């Protein structure tokens, strides 16, 4: 479930990354989830990236507000109940126009571990949460080649997730201060 907040929180900070000309990927800085849209126009956070559901076309309107539209589903990203496709000159649904704000939350707040919450994972079958009924995956036999992620092109990719080979600076885990990266101009850092 995705909702708005009247004040900035560590969970309301978003990173908007360009995917191509006019296309963006939106992720929660603290949660690491991708903003995605289903076929009914409902937005949700996902741990897994899907090119069809998690990429949005970005437009800046004449009034200076930004709107984001799903190229697959044609709905605008909206925090309200009304879902509508973008058409120039039409009245936009409430809560579908956004203004960029400067980040006012200190970086150390993003690095502080949160207490573990007992929530149900979307990957867990509620009928069989301990996977007792599901056959276990077989591990490859000794000497057999391991399957690489490239062998599974249908599986969603995770372009922004950190793998074990990445070196992480504990003072800047999201590499926002690193000069060779080009972060979105919408994500500002205050000192």
From TrEMBL:
Keyword Ligase appears in the UniProt entry: no
Domain of life: Eukaryota
MF-aspect GO terms: growth factor activity
Signal sequence, start to end: none
Keyword line: Developmental protein, Differentiation, Mitogen
Short name of one Pfam family: FGF
An annotated GO BP: positive regulation of cell division
Homology family: Belongs to the heparin-binding growth factors family.
Record's protein name: FGF23 factor
Family matches, as SMART domains: FGF (SM00442)
The UniProt record lists the keyword Ion transport: no
């Amino acid at each position: 479930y995705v909702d708005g907040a009247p004040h900035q929180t560590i969970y309301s900070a978003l990173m908007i990354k360009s995917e191509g000309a006019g296309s963006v990927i939106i992720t929660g800085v603290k949660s690491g989830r991708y903003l995605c849209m289903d076929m009914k126009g409902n937005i949700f956070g996902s741990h897994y990236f899907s090119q069809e559901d998690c990429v949005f076309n970005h437009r800046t309107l004449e009034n200076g507000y930004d709107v984001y539209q799903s190229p697959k589903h044609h709905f605008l990203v909206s925090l309200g109940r009304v879902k509508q496709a973008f058409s120039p000159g039409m009245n936009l649904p409430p809560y579908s126009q956004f203004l960029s704000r400067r980040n006012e939350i200190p970086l150390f707040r993003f690095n502080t571990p949160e207490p573990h919450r007992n929530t149900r994972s979307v990957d867990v079958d509620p009928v069989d949460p301990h996977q007792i009924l599901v056959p276990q995956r077989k591990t490859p036999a000794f000497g057999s080649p391991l399957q690489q992620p490239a062998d599974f092109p249908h599986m969603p990719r995770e372009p922004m997730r950190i793998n074990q080979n990445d070196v992480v600076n504990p003072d800047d885990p999201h590499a926002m201060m690193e000069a060779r990266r080009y972060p979105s101009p919408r994500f500002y850092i205050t000192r």
